[in-house]
Specification:
Length: 252
């Protein structure tokens, strides 16, 4: 058997692709040969530059991903514009911080809608597209260290990311026989907009770094190898797995 990490001729949809982890993964997939559709509420110009610099096609979709209709729209537009869909990277996510005793219903619903509900319905829409094309596909969900741990002051985020891990396993069980690989990446403490408040707090930042064996915050490009692997034929027999890219945090 020939093992290949190349993605030539494939089309990848990456949500939350305007910046941070999503942008880095979109560019990594392009560098491996995939054409990319980026979906986000933010401007995707920088991501376009990175994808096109790798010699691949890029399509931007402005969408907030709330609701089942949005999930269907994004998948249908991606497949229609580039002729097919082979990969979904469910990366879009938000976070709200407050003591649990003060946490609001709005902050709960906003995070659950984007970080969990949209993950399921995008995966469902993508799987339907894969099957309509007559073949399998790859779905990579973005989990978190808080898929394994409780954390503090982020109740809806912890609930959603715990759900993402369980959902990844359930979908893998159902769809592996159909040739659809469903797996997840669990990023550690990464230098992104979501962690800016933590990094700005000198005491909290030092506390976090003190537990990371690698001794540094992760950077978005640190996810490149994991996402390319899970989206490639090298991972054809990988189903329901989660790869922690965390500098060793969970091993500590």
């Amino acid at each position: 058997m020939t093992i290949s990490f190349r993605l030539d001729g494939r089309v990848a949809l990456v949500t939350g692709a305007a910046q941070g982890l999503g942008q880095a993964m979109a560019i990594a997939l392009a560098e491996a040969g995939a054409n990319v559709v980026g979906a986000d509420v933010g401007a995707l110009d920088e991501t376009r530059v990175g994808v096109e610099a790798a010699g691949r096609k890029f399509m931007a979709i402005a969408e907030n991903l709330r609701g089942t209709a949005a999930a269907r729209r994004v998948v249908e537009r991606a497949a229609s514009a580039l002729g097919r869909l082979d990969i979904l990277v469910n990366n879009a996510g938000i976070i709200r911080r407050a003591d649990s005793i003060e946490f609001t219903e709005a902050d709960w619903d906003d995070v659950i809608d984007i970080n969990l509900k949209s993950v399921f319905f995008l995966a469902q829409a993508a799987a339907r597209q894969f099957l309509a094309q007559g073949g399998g596909g790859k779905i990579v969900n973005v989990a978190s260290l808080l898929s394994f741990q409780g954390g503090i002051r982020v109740p809806s985020y912890t609930a959603a990311k715990s759900g993402v891990l369980g959902l990844t396993r359930l979908l893998a069980n159902e769809w592996a026989p159909k040739g659809i690989n469903v797996n997840a990446i669990a990023p550690g403490y990464m230098a992104t907009a979501n962690t800016a408040p933590l990094r700005a707090d000198a005491a909290r930042s030092a506390e976090i770094l003190g537990r990371i064996p690698a001794g540094r915050w992760g950077e978005p490009p640190d996810l490149a190898g994991a996402v390319v692997f899970l989206c490639s034929s090298a991972a054809d027999y990988v189903h329901g797995s989660v790869i922690a890219v965390d500098g060793g945090w969970l091993a500590r």
